[in-house]
Specification:
Length: 386
């Protein structure tokens, strides 16, 4: 007898190149088998998925979940897990002095699986309102960050750096130095670097960022709108074509992540990039307190935007399951429905109709389909169902 049977769903698992009607059996919190027909009599509990799509539990590669310690932090068990997101990456919410709190009170207590990128700032994003983490460069703790990361490599997978100037003054005039230190810290711990490039100080060009990134490093927010006064941050040249450095970075294996956020997804720029056959590597939300009620909402809504921008369902699922799993170096553990792995499964309805989506500049996209979570299974247990 299996503990659980997901019955008659259209399974999409890019990690195994599976797409079709299958049943999935689960026991002891793990996937047992995927087969065309498994009798319901062989299971103690049935999840009926006929007419719905079934995917590995989604992975959100850009979130902020240090709830209670930062102004941006959300509770992932309330905002991500019920939406089919079984794994999240917290991106730089904590630094060397406050990572232990993230580990003990969020990572170890959440039903959602949580990994982290550490910040070079000793306080992470726990700065007071109106003051950013590296506006005062004395907050940098390079040695402490490397030490904490190495001691917690089971959950700390790399480093995160924000490069911003007024109205979001993150590093002031220290952009080049902050970027170099974050890069070296990621190398020291054997992890990857995620760079937030919005509003780079004029001495730093997006080309400088792209040249330094290695295979597996992540440029997030790459489809953001143009920022007035900061032409050096755009991924397009004066003719509106993608910079050559973008193509060179892609060839090297640099990851281009959406990171929707409150100011980082432009439908216009997405269409321009798609017109040159340049797609995201991964789709993520950059979900935090001021965008969870719009324009982001959640990962399925963000996925739906890309469905209606022209990406196929299979590609959108790939960008939120197997691809982010590879970025995290966890492709044999998550983002897959392979027998033997922890049973993280999401069941969705693809609703059809007329739906209006908005980007960060409140530009409208009217689409004819959207993904709505129906059932979420975490480690073999049904944790959400509608």
């Amino acid at each position: 007898m299996f503990d659980l049977l997901v019955k008659d769903g259209t399974v999409i698992d890019p990690s195994q190149q599976i797409e079709g009607r299958y049943d999935i059996s689960i026991s002891d919190g793990k996937i047992v088998s995927i087969a065309e027909e498994i009798p319901t009599s062989a299971a103690r509990k049935i999840v009926e998925a006929k007419g719905r799509i079934v995917t590995p539990g989604l992975i959100d590669l850009h979130t902020h979940v240090y709830w209670g310690a930062t102004r941006t932090g959300l509770n992932p068990d309330l905002t991500s897990l019920p939406k089919g997101v079984t794994t999240v990456l917290d991106c730089g919410s904590s630094g060397s002095t406050n990572f232990l709190g993230l580990r003990k009170f969020i990572i170890e207590r959440s039903r959602t699986r949580v990994f982290a990128l550490l910040h070079l700032s000793s306080i992470g994003l726990a700065s007071p309102s109106g003051v950013t983490e590296l506006e005062d460069f004395r907050n940098i703790d390079y040695d402490g960050a490397v030490e904490v990361a190495k001691e917690n490599r089971d959950v700390v997978l790399g480093m995160k750096i924000r490069l911003g100037v007024p109205p979001v003054s993150v590093v002031g005039r220290h952009g080049h130095l902050a970027l170099r230190l974050a890069f070296e810290a990621a190398e020291d711990i054997g992890g990857f670097l995620m760079v937030h490039p919005k509003g780079i100080y004029p001495g730093v060009l997006i080309q400088d960022v792209l040249r330094i990134l290695r295979k597996g490093d992540v440029l997030t927010h790459f489809l953001h709108p143009q920022y007035s006064g900061f032409p050096q941050v755009t991924i397009f040249n004066e003719e509106g074509k993608l910079l050559p450095e973008m193509w060179n970075a892609r060839k090297r294996g640099v990851v281009f992540d959406v990171g929707h956020g409150s100011g980082s997804l432009s439908f216009e720029n997405a269409r321009k990039a798609f017109g040159e056959c340049f797609e995201p590597s991964t789709i993520s939300t950059d979900l935090f307190t001021t965008n969870v009620n719009g324009p982001v909402y959640d990962l399925p809504t963000t996925m739906s935007k890309f469905l209606n921008l022209g990406l196929s369902l299979e590609r959108v699922v790939e960008m939120t399951t197997s691809r982010p799993a590879q970025v995290l170096g966890k492709q044999d553990e998550i983002g897959t429905l392979k027998p033997g792995v922890v049973a993280d499964v999401a069941v969705f309805t693809v609703e059809e109709g007329a739906f209006t989506f908005r980007d960060v500049r409140r530009q409208s996209l009217v689409g004819n389909k959207r993904l709505v979570p129906n059932t979420v299974i975490r480690a073999g247990e049904v944790v959400a169902q509608s």
